[in-house]
């Protein structure tokens, strides 16, 4: 009779991740956000933009889980479909900041001297144009919209990633194995690609997670002000804006999108904190 083999144990990282409460809770909330966006692509209780005036401002019921707004639109459907804009803005804004900012940070760290000084001063100049101001400028030229929000938030992310990348890369350039690689005849770009990038990848991953959370808040703020996602596409920020006129008549209209934003940002921040602990070798040995 053959012996029953035990189930394969999860890898070290997965086992530590499951034991890390911050990462586990954050990952669960983030997966819930992604699941909501995915499900809304194929199904929602009602069409999110469907107006039904006779049934406006209804409370929670089996027909409308979170009630209806001042135009009779189903709140649950708007929350589900609104997650699509949140994901799209967050992903593309972080990609813009990550790709351009990391490239500038690596360039500054590899070249040093006047190149590093120029990149850092350019980052300081870009910091003078936060996402809101950039969205106002772009909105005045091209009009408000989803793309305007993505570009504005992406521009704000560039100096953030540039500074983080430069600081992390400078620490790697001072390591002994990098000095040995230079002595072996490798040029700056070979060292950057083979030694610097792999050793700062964890730092950039954690930063990307945190900037994703920041992008969600920025998108909600821009949509609240009418500079982000435009009707008829739902947006959590615009739902808050529309709910403020019904605060005394239907206060839950502001609670639902506000709570959704809080949970999404909380999940990403908790997951980022957990990743920082899990990817740090010193902290990993303690777990």
Provide the descriptors you would attach to this structure in a database record.
287 residues, mainly alpha, MetI-like fold, disordered N terminus
Structure commentary:
This protein has one domain: MetI-like (MetI-like fold), CATH 1.10.3720.10. About 75% of the residues lie in helices and about 0% in strands. It has eleven helices and no strands. Helix 7 (about 175-185) packs across helix 8.
Task: Provide a short characterization of the protein structure.
The protein has 287 residues and is an all-alpha fold. The protein is built from eleven helices and no strands. α2 crosses α3 (75-111), α3 (75-111) runs antiparallel to α8 (188-224) and α8 (188-224) runs antiparallel to α10 (252-279).
Helix residue percentage: over 70%
Which percent range describes the beta-strand content? Answer: under 5%
Taking pLDDT < 50 over at least 5 consecutive residues as the criterion, the unreliable ranges are 1-10
Report the biggest beta sheet as strand number plus sense, adding barrel if it closes.
none
Q: In CATH, what is the class?
A: Mainly Alpha
Number of domains: 1
CATH architecture: Orthogonal Bundle
Order of helices and strands: HHHHHHHHHHH
The helix/strand class is: mainly alpha
Number of helices: 11
State Rg.
Answer: 23 Å
Q: Determine the CATH superfamily.
A: MetI-like
CATH level 3 topology: MetI-like fold
- Mean pLDDT across every amino acid position: 89
Shape label: elongated
Strand segment tally? 0
């Amino acid at each position: 009779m053959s012996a029953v083999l035990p189930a394969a144990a999860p890898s070290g990282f997965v086992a530590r991740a499951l034991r890390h409460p911050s990462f586990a809770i954050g990952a669960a909330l983030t997966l819930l956000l992604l699941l909501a966006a995915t499900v809304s692509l194929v199904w929602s209780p009602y069409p999110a933009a469907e107006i039904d005036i006779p049934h406006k401002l209804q409370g929670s019921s089996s027909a409308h889980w979170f009630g209806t707004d001042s135009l009779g639109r189903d709140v649950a459907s708007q929350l589900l479909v609104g997650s699509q804009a949140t994901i799209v803005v967050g992903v593309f804004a972080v990609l813009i900041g990550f790709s351009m900012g990391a490239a500038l940070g690596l360039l500054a760290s590899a070249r040093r001297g006047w190149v590093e000084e120029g990149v850092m001063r350019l980052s300081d100049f870009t910091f003078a144009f936060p996402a809101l101001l950039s969205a106002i400028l772009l909105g005045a030229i091209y009009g408000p919209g989803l793309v305007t929000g993505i570009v504005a938030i992406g521009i704000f992310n560039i100096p953030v990633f540039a500074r983080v990348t430069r600081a992390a890369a400078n620490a790697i350039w001072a390591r002994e194995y990098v000095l040995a690689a230079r002595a072996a005849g490798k040029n700056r770009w070979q060292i950057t690609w083979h030694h610097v990038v792999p050793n700062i990848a964890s730092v950039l991953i954690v930063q990307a997670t945190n900037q994703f959370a920041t992008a969600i808040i920025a998108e909600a703020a821009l949509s609240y002000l009418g500079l982000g996602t435009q009707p008829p596409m739902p947006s959590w920020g615009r739902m808050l804006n529309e709910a403020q006129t019904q605060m005394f008549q239907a206060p839950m209209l502001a609670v639902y999108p506000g709570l959704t934003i809080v949970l999404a940002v909380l999940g990403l921040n908790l997951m980022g904190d957990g990743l920082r602990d899990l990817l740090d070798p010193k902290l990993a040995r303690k777990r």
